[in-house]
Amino acid sequence: MSAGEHVDGPHQGQQLATAGTDLEDAEAALVCTHGRGATARGMLQLAADVIQEGVAVLAPQAARQTWYPSSFLAPVEQNEPGRRSGLQAISDAINEAADAGIPTERVMLIGFSQGACLASEYLARNPRRYGGLAALSGGLIGETLDDEYPGDLEGTPVFLGCSDTDPYIPKERVHETAAVLESMDADVTKRLYEGMGHGINEDELAVVSEMVTALIDV
């Protein structure tokens, strides 16, 4: 899904969980996407560890707690219509922030696992300047990645954090994702953590917290 398209799929009509500063009063926004089997409410708990005054949190919910059915490394068509519908859910949240007067430059995408894959994919397919991307244990979606992703991310700060032995996210795909986003002029920080497994650690939370602070310190 790219800018200008609109998808009506399984994740449309799900409730958008919110936290932080009221959207109408916020200076910036976080759009947080959960992993397989998790919930938007769980992402609000994660956001509570990094939130700053003046930042709204918007967390889309996947139908049946799953954005797409197969591995993110499967052929893309195996994950439709969930993938496209999930990308639309992110777009809808960004549009809610825009309607409240928050520009994309102050919107940061944060995702874990499936949600990290979806957020990475959204950024690459809808290139412009964003407040940032924190993809925790995730990467771009597809059996193989396109040779070229057109567009310019205009220096968008990106953090990719993952275990070097994650059972679901091969470190090779993290490297590939970093290369793609760097080719689109993102400012990428990549960290692989030895033996961490599939989770989030304190170092990642510290990095994300710094990125959130930067949203309102401009």
Automatic annotation (TrEMBL):
UniProt keyword annotations, A-Z: Hydrolase
Domain annotation Phospholipase/carboxylesterase/thioesterase: ranges: 29-214
Single annotated GO MF: hydrolase activity
Signal peptide feature range: none
Coiled-coil annotated residue ranges, if any: none
Keyword Cell membrane appears in the UniProt entry: no
Origin superkingdom: Archaea
Ranges that cross the membrane: none
InterPro entries, per database record: AB_hydrolase_fold (IPR029058), LYPA1-2/EST-like (IPR050565), PLipase/COase/thioEstase (IPR003140)
PANTHER family: LYSOPHOSPHOLIPASE-LIKE PROTEIN 1 (PTHR10655:SF17), LYSOPHOSPHOLIPASE-RELATED (PTHR10655)
Family in the record: Belongs to the AB hydrolase superfamily. AB hydrolase 2 family.
Protein name (database record): Phospholipase/carboxylesterase
Source organism per UniProt: Natrinema hispanicum
